[in-house]
Amino acid sequence: MVQTRTIQLIIFCLLIISMQVLVQLGASTNSGDYVVLEPLKEEWENIPPSWDGSDPCNDPWEGIDCNNSRVISIKLSSINLKGELSGDIEGLSELQILDLSYNKGLTGSLPQSIGNLKSLSILILVGCGFSGLIPNTIGSLSQLEYLSLNLNNFIGPIPASVGNLSKLHWLDLADNKLSGPLPVSPGLDMLVHTKHFHLGGNQFSGEIPDQLFSSNMTLKHLLLDQNQLTGKIPPSLGLVQTLEVVRLDRNSLDGSIPSTLKNLALMSELFLSNNKFTGPLPNLAGMNALYYLDMSNNTFSSADFPQWFSTLQSLTTLVMENTQLQGEIPPTLFSLFQLQTVNLRGNKINGTLNIASNYSSQLKLIDLQNNSIDAYTVRPGFPFQIILMHNPVCYEERSEDYCGISQTNFVYSTPQENCLKTQCSSDQILSPTCKCAYPYTGDLFFRAPSFSDLTNTSIYESLQKSMLSSFSPNQVPVDSVSLSNPKKNSEYYLVLHLQVFPFGQDHFNRTGIATIGFALSNQTYKPPPKFGPFFFSGESYKYFEVGSRGTHKSITKGIIIGAAAGGAVLLILSVIIGVLVCQKKRDQEAIRKSNPFATWDSIKDSGGVPQLKGVKCFTFEELKKYTNNFSESNYIGSGGYGKVYKGTLPDGQLIAIKRAEQASKQGALEFKTEIEILSRFHHKNVVSLVGFCFRQGEQMLVYEFIPNGSLKESLSGKSGIKLDWKRRLRIALGAARGLQYLHDHVDPPIIHRDIKSNNILLDERLTAKVADFGLSKTMYEPDKGYVSTQVKGTMGYMDPEYYTTQQLTEKSDVYSFGVLLLELITARSPIVRGKYIVKELRQAIDKSKDMYNIDEFVDPAIPSNMTPISFRKFVDLAFTCLEDAGANRPTMAEVVKEIENIMEIDGLNSCAESRSTSVSHEGTSATFDHPYSEESLNRYNGVTNSR
Question: ω before 748 within 30° of 0 (cis)?
Answer without folding.
Answer: yes
